[in-house]
Every structure is written in C-alpha cells, then in structure tokens.
Amino acid sequence: MKHLRIPVTLALLVFVAACVTINVYFPAEAAERAADRIIRDVYGQPVPQQPAPAEPQSLNDHLPAASPVPLLVLLDWLVTPAHAAADISVNTPAIRQLEAAMEKRHQQLAKYYTDGAVGMTQDGFITIRDQKLIALQDRNTVKGLVASENRDRNALYVEIAKANGHPEWETEIREIFARRWIDNAPSGWWYQSGKGGWKQK
Amino acid sequence: MSVPGRRVLLTLLCLPGLLLVGTLPGHAFNATTLQLGTLQGEGWHAEGLQLQINLQDDNRARILLQAQSARLPEPLGRLTDLQLECAAAEVTAVRLDCPDGVLRLQSGQYAKQQIRARFGYRFTDKRLSFDLTGIRLLGGRLALRGEVATGEWQVDVEADGLSLPQLSTRLAAIGPAWPRLEGGGELALTAHLQGRAAALGRARFSLRLRSDSFTNAAGSLAGEDLEVRANGEARAIAGGWRLNLEASADRGRLYVEPLFIEVPDQAIQATARFDYQISNRQVTLHSSEYRHPGGVALAANGHIDLATGPLLRDLQVELQEGRLATLYGTYLRPWFAGTLVGELETKGQVTGELHWLAGELGRVKLDLADLSLRDRDGRFDLTGVDGRLRWSGDGTAEVSDLHWQGGSIYRVGLGLADLRVETTGKKARLVEPARIQVLDGELQLEKLELEIGEAAALRWQVDGILTPVSMQQLSLALGWPEFAGKLSGVIPAVRYDDGHLSVGGILLVRVFDGMITLSDVSLERPLGVIPRLQLDARITGIDLKALTGAFSFGRIEGRLDGRVDNLEMESWRPVAFDAAFTTPEGDKSRHRISQRAVDNISSIGGGGVGGVLSRSFLRFFKDFPYDRLGIRCRLENGVCDMGGVTPAPEVGGYYLVKGRLLPHLDVIGYADRVDWESLVAQIMAVTRQQNTVSE
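Predict the joint structure of the above. Result:
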C-alpha cells in the first residue's frame, strides 16, 4: 500500500462580490426615498418593502470542474450587494442610533402632534404651536422633548451628509427632510405655512 | 371757599328758612329748582348741575340733584347723567341726611349704575359721609363707605365676585405690565383707603382669589384650581410708596414660564417689605421671604432697579432651606433643560447665600449635605456628595471642598473621592492632589486647572495617574466579554476644551499577557449624543490562547503583535481604522490552530462548510501547526479593505494562516473589499453559537 503523502492544502475560496458606490451627483430622488424610510420608521408607519439583498452565492456554483486540489473548503463571505447607483447611504451606527432615539421619543410626542400643541416648521424641525393645549404640569417636559428632537434631527442631517462623504450636502438633505416630514405626516397635524401662519393637514 | 361752593352753601342754608316759611299757614312751597351750573373742587368738577327740592311735612324734603356730567379723580373718571334722588331727606339746621337714596349714573367704563346711596352732610364742618351699596363692577358687586371733609377722605371698600379676566383687562389698560388673562376666577376684596383730594395717602387691603383655570394669551402664565390670599399695607412716602405685603397660595397649580409650581399640602407663602421710588423706578427691598413648605425657604433684601441697567443692583439672598428634590426639581431644572445637568434625580440638602453686587453675582456660598445626583439617561451618578463651595466674583481666592462616596460614569463605578479646589474668579485649580477611586484602582489627579471662558465655554486640564484597574471589572462594566488583565497609565495632560477631550499621554493596558499602548486619545462630546473617540494603538505579545479562550472561538496558540492606526469610533462603534495583526517576527512560541477554530473561521462565511474537515481524514487531527498567521483591514465608509499575513499571488488571494509541516493547512482569503457590518454580525453570530453549543 502506498502511503499517500498528499500535501493537503486547504484553500478557502472567497468570492469577490462587493461593489463600491461612488456618488458624484446629488441623488435627490434617492435622498427622498431614504428620508421617507427614516421618517416612516420614526412615525411608526409601515415601511414599504426594500428589495431583498441578493442570496449569498452558493458554493456549488464555484466549484471548479476539475481541481488539482483534492479537498476544497469553500468559504462564502456574505457581502451585501451594492446599493443602486443612485442611492444614498443611511446605514451607519450613528444614524441608526439617532433614528432609534427619535422613534422612542415620537411615542411620547405623538399625542401633542394630534392635539395641535406641537407642529412642524418649514425647515425640518418642530416647535410648540400653542402651549395652552398642553396640561400645565407637562409643559416643561414637552418643551424638553421638542428641544431634544430638534437636536437629534440636526445631528441626523449632518450625519447623513457625512456618511455619504459630502458634508456640504447637509442643507439639501435638511430641505428634503423638511418637505417629507410634512408630506408623510398624518392628517390633522399642523405645520407652518410659508407666510408664518399655521396650516392643518 | 370757591364761588360755586358758596352758592351751594347758601342754597342749603336757605333750606331751614324755607321750611320755616313753608310751615306758616298760608304759604306752601312745593318745589324749588335751582340751576347751579358748573361746580368744581380739588380734583373734581361737575357740569349742568340742577337741584330740585320738594318740601314736605315734618322737616322732610324730596331732593333730586342732577348733573349732566362730572369728572372725578381716577379711577372713577367721567360720569354722565348723574341723578341723586332722596325720597325723604331730613333737613335740620345742622345737617342733611338721606337715609334712603338712589344714585343713578352712566359711565363709559362702568356702564349704567343704580346705587343705593345713604349719605349725610353736616353743615358746620362740611363733612360728608356716605354709604353706597350695590355698585356693579367687573362682574361683581362693590360697596363703598366713607367720609369726605375739606378735601380729605377715607373710604372702606368691600368687593365680591370681581371677575379675574375683566379685572386683568382693566389693569392692563392702566399699566402695560399687568398681564391680560382669559378664563375664570373671582376676587373678593376689602380695603381701607385714605387720602387727600386726588392723592391716595394710605391703603390697607385684603383679598382672596379663586380660579378654576386661567391663562394669558400665550400660555406663559396660567393657573388651575388656584386659591390665593393676600393682604398688605401701602403708605405714601416722599417720592413713592412703602409697601408691606403678604401672600399665600393655599391650593392649586401655577405655571409661570418656565416654572411649574404645584402647591403642596401646606400653603406656599411669600412676604415682602419694600419702598418704591416712582421717579427712577427703584425698589429698596427691606426684607422678603419665600417659603415652599418641605422644599425651599429663602430670604432676600437689597436693591432692585426696574428702570435701565441690571435688575439686581445689589441683593443678598439667603437659602435657609433647600431640599434639592424641590429646589432642583421645581425651581432650577427648567433653566438647565438640555444641558448635562438637565435630567437629574436628586436628593439631599443645599443651604447657602448668594450676593449680587453692582448688578453681577458677586459671592456664592453653598453647603451641600448628603446629595445624590442621578442622570436619568444613565450617563453618570454620584451619591453621598458633601461639600462646601465658595466663590467670589471679584477674584478673591476661595477654597471649596467636594467629597463623594460613590457613583459611576456610564457604567464604570467610582468610589470615594476627595477634592479641594481653589477658585479665583473664572479659574479653579486643585489645592492638593485628589484621589478618585475607579473600579478597583484609583485615579490620582496631580493637577487640575479649570477656566470658564467666553460664552460659558468650559476648559480644563488635568495631570494624573491611573493605578491598575482590573480589565475584568472594566469589561463587565462596559458590557464586553470578560477580559483578564489590567489597565493603567500615566496621564500627563488630559485636556478638555469646549466639548473636546484629549489625552496627552499614553494609556497602557496589560491584557492577555501582552501589552496594548493607546496614544493620541481624543474624545469629542464625551457625554453628548454621539461621542467620537480617536486613538492609535500598538499591540505586543498577546497570548492567543488566552484571547481565543476568552472568546470561545476555538483554540489558537501563539503570539500576536499588531497596530491600529487612526481608530475612529462613533457612539463606541468603529467607523474607521487601519489595523494589522501578525505573528511576531522570530516568535518561538508554539503555533497551533485547532480544528474548531478553522471551522469557526470558515463558518463566518455562512456556508457551514466547516463540516468538510470533519468528513475527511483530517478529522483525526484536533489541531494543526502553522507558520504564521495574520489579518489586516483598513475600514473606511463601511467597507473593509482586507489582507492577510502575506499575499497568495498564485491564487489571487492572501494567506490568513500559513501552514507548516504536516498536516499542512493554509487558510486563504479572497475578498479584497468586505462589508464591515455584515462581517461583524457574522463573527458575533458564530461566537454566540459557540457559547451555546458545547463541544
């Protein structure tokens, strides 16, 4: 019997499937989709289904027909597919953290939106519309919630611009959000009209 | 006496004569009408006066005095269509009495009135006494009783059911400082006023206010279920008034932006004694007190400037009692909303003094007793805080002591601490080195310098030493898997400047029998929404057996060196770094990698192909020797630029593990650019799986 001295080399094949997104032009439409997703999350509204990421490539597809290597251990790295070329990245830890905080805070703020005590501004923030609609003992709490929400929103706009490598996009991102906050709001909520008055959805 | 006055007098003097004549048989005077024209006196005048007298039997007369209009001192103002009718006035040589009269009048401000009027006039000293009831005013009723003689007068006022909104509108019209209120509320008032002509000399009053709910238009002043009582005295002095006021809120809730005050079981009370100078709007506060039972008691005196310039010219405030839960919870927290100390739960007592001098805060003296401060967001807490805080605004050096028994920052436990600080104006420094216990080690602060700059920007610098802190406790506190080892370091110059913390020295971590040095550590917004950490690290001599043992990853034996350059973490998660780890050059330790570790590395790919090893004859080998191993990753924008210990050009990849001898095992990676989030998620999944599945 021959001793088979087979240098067994285990090679783990890894397949490159990563795509890199380079944004050159500001993708306004994609920004609206991203804004809508975040806004709907915060408002607790159902989010339209995202396209499912591509399945990890099965190792069978990549077995070479005849390999000099007797044993192959194939390694699949799961790589999320590249986003569509015109999408913007809203998936950093910082953005997710801000979103989670805003979602939680919204549960406390929701009734004040409905009562008309709190309304949306033209520049992407919220403000107290009529504090007489808030019970005396809650006025300071609500003011605190409004201030924290505005702080988080500001940080969100900055973070989204930074996450996409273009800090100077902050103004446009804020403008897009300003429109989408109001458009996505349920009817009955109040927002500032251009001339300094209030309108109800 | 003025000419018109004489006319009235003459007329009235004639009355007895007329009566006498009237009783003579044969003569019957029925009615006499006298046109008196215009009359005026000190501070008042009347026009179109007409007096009608119907003499009756037994000294009685029916008197009707009419005036087209009259102007009286404010707040009575202009009245029209006055009619004073006395059905049965008694006239004697000495006096005229009207026990049952009616006064009708029209007023722009007070509408149409029909008032029961009783009055008497004494001819000898021209003294008029009157008693008016049923005056309708501001939704309620008013009664006036008083006397007038040669220009001097005094009046007792009783009012009931005055409407708060109507009263506030009337007061707002007089002086713009009064708020205009909507809603409900009733006022009852008694007062005694004394004066001369149009000038009020002295007043005493007592009032009670009840309101279900009221608010001003903006909602910045509002009350609910409120019951307030007040009384006071005012006396005219040269150039102004001297006032002595007391007020108590017995029940209710009051919102005075930004304070929300709820009256506890016992009434909140306030008193004040002060002089007010009208010309320059200066208030000299002789004494004042504010008591919130079970919470706050303070006393104050000084000078307040209501005209131009700083409001508190000089003021001494003594905080006699300050239960922090009430003092902070009700009175201070609204001012700190949004800051680091805006969301605290507090316990303990604070007493002290605050002095304002020449418009600025000049002196602060605070004594803290057994305070406990806990941030609701879990960022920090301190317990058993005692202290004596002293500060002078004029730059005099003052020494303060601060001492606490325990606490934590994020979840890192702090123990005893003792600080002695000297403040000089806007600067502070440690008088002697301070020691703060951290976990099982100690932070020794050699030097602390602090400065408050422009716009309350905070700047401080600390030199210190961190004596060894067990990594096991630290890793537990931070929620990491348990590490063995010690963290210690010399910290020359930790600097904080307006939100940015930087460490000038090097932190040494002894862990897994190796050493990690952290340098250029900088932390932005340490307690903010998104803290940002940057640092460089050098790793030498990590024992892989200890490391993989801690993570239950399967056993790898050997040593590891490495570097992490420009690590950036946001909210304690890495967003960028340039890292490389390899087996040290010339390392003579035993190099083995277990089958399980290889299985785990391969199952990170999600393919579960590790079973291939156990299906082949390799299953007889529990571990494999290796020559070198290593991994390198440059993380940017969520993508990891990966590499291994050395390239594998023949297959277009890189060696993660380079085998040696037999059985020869190479682990080769191929992905150049790897999604970081997914990689981390899968490593976590594998590790977690390993911890649940025992092998």
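The CA atoms of residues 398 and 629 of chain B lie 61 Å apart.
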